[in-house]
Amino acid sequence: MKRLHQTVLIVSFIPLCWFAMMGVHEAGHVLAGWLTGGEVQKVVLHPLAISRTDVEPNPQPLIVVWSGPVLGITLPVLLWVIFNFAKIRGEYLPRFFAGFCLIANGAYIGVGSFDRIGDAGEMLKLTSPIWTLWLFGLLTIPLGFWLWHRQGIYFGLGESQGKVEINAAYVSLLSLIFSLILLFSLSPRS
Fold first, then answer.
1. Is residue 113's pLDDT more than 70?
2. What is the pLDDT of residues 41-73, one digit of tens each?
3. Domain boundaries, the chain
4. I need a labelling partner for 102 at 20 to 30 A (CA). Which of 81, 92, 112, 174 fits?
């Protein structure tokens, strides 16, 4: 039975991290768009699509484009720091999420610079030096892996032999279900 709980935790928490990472990343674009006097026209947050934020007019496009990945790593790391310092039970979940966001955003910007895809392509088009994108990736990806180091035990890996916190597994599953319902219901119909 413990492998069932482990499977529920892992299979629900990884996609939950993906959806939450997209949300936090897009929140950075939205917030920067508003703060720089832009108008957010559309935010695409759909489970079956890559997220996107359209700001038009966009008086400060370079600030807006960088704010996605910057806020996309800052908020999850702050969440983990709060859980860690407050000694809140389940601290490993925001720690994993922060690591996930660091790795995903770092790879998206650093590796994305080679093919000039998405935000990385926009950053380069808006005159960000390529080395800044590489530096972003070089700083965030290893930090993400550092946060993940020795966390497998909480997900039933290694010496824990499948044992996980049952509450964490089912809170994760319910959060994923709620996220999917929310994402599908808020997504504009095409």
1. yes
2. 999 998 888 899 999 999 999 999 999 999 999
3. 2-186
4. 174
Q: What is the pLDDT of residues 70-86, one digit of tens each?
A: 999 999 999 999 999 99
Q: Which candidate, 119, 132, 162, places its Cα nearest to that of 28? A: 119
Q: Which uninterrupted H or E stretch holds 40?
A: strand 40-44
Alpha-carbon span 131 to 62, nearest angstrom? 16
CB 179 within 8 A of CB 19: yes
Residue 114 buriedness (CB in 10 A; 0-12 / 13-18 / 19+): exposed
Nearest to 55 by CA among 81, 28, 78: 28
| Percent of the chain residues topping a pLDDT of 90 | 90
* Sequence-distant contacts of 6-12: CB under 8 A, at least 24 apart: 6/155, 6/156, 6/162, 6/163, 6/164, 6/169, 8/169, 8/170, 8/172, 8/173, 9/155, 9/156, 9/164, 9/165, 9/168, 9/169, 9/172, 10/155, 10/156, 12/169, 12/172, 12/173, 12/175, 12/176
